[in-house]
Amino acid sequence: MFVRRTEKYVGTRELTPRFAQRNHMTPEQKEGTKNGRCIFSIDVEDWFHILDVPSAPAFCEWTELPSRVEKNFCRLLEIIRASDVRITCFFLGWVAERFPHLVREAQAQGHEIASHGYRHELVYRMTSAQFLEDASKAKKILEDVSCSTVWGYRSSGFSVTRDTPWFFEKLMEAGYRYDSSVFPGPRGHGGIKTTQFAPYRLRDGSNGLIEFPITVAGVLGRPVCFFGGGYLRLFPYWVVKRMAGKVIDEGRPVVFYVHPREIDTSHPRLSMSLARRFKSYVNLSTMEGKIRRLLSDFSFITFQNAVAENYFCLKD
Ligand SMILES: [Zn+2]
Which residues constitute the domain of residue 27? Predict the structure, then answer.
């Protein structure tokens, strides 16, 4: 039923040198980031929501599995509360439906509620109609639970590619105002070859939808993300901090992203190849400390407030 799309990010030559100069940031945009405000986000899903491994449980099995998201997300909220920072929580619709109190708790603490879709499907494995249904369903669940309008969307695995040209149009049709799904570099799921590394407003039928690409830093001319997932766990904190500083100096905000399972060293492991196992589980024990230091070393704004205030001075 789902359409398999296989296009992956191809080559990095066009992304090579001089990241800052290729971001096309206007002086106003650079002014908007002069305080170096970044965005911290959580993709709120469970330990078994790992994509594209044969051992991952099917949707119909999820409710039978021992869930860890409640405990881990509450722990993350506790860590964040200690820093008095406001963040964006991209809830999987399925998680919000099962644990609506997590949405309400995050909201009560002043965090933004946003959508991570409903079933955690890769975008390029859905038809445009299936995607619209999934993104709309998640939005409705989150809005019903939070009694507020959901503005933001992030796809599972940043899986928007050149093979999903309908993606932004369908997001707009579902009523979203911004997206943070584009991974501007090579990636296992998705990735788009682009020179747009800073936030930008989409045109051509997207009704002003704003894209906040996942942040990459240039390393030997290649785009590398140090700010979420495996790389955030893999690299020592000083490397992450230095690369974040480099991005801020270039006039871009850093978008950090974490998952609740990443602070849980004893969660069950799915069986997978050695390479995937390394990427999925390396250095889990370092994450809590890194998150605490990030929250204390940088200042933050939620995606929603950045859009509402046009904080990054995006042109209409
Ligand atoms: Zn996810």
Answer: 12-308
202 falls within a domain: yes
Please report, for the domain that includes residue 117, its CATH number.
3.20.20.370
Q: Structure pTM?
A: 0.88
Cα atoms found within 13 Å of the Cα of residue 94, Cβ hemisphere only:
19
What is the count of structural domains for the chain?
Answer: 1
What is the model's pLDDT at position 205? 55
CA of 49 to the centre of ligand 1 (A): 7
- Ligand 1 centre distance from Cα of residue 119 (Å): 10
Is 4 part of any domain? no
Return the pLDDT at 60.
93
Q: What is the share, in percent, of the chain residues with pLDDT greater than 90? A: 66
User: Count of CB atoms within 10 A of residue 273's CB?
Assistant: 10
How far is 314 from 298, CA to CA, in rounded Å?
22
- In the predicted model, what is the mean pLDDT of the chain? 87
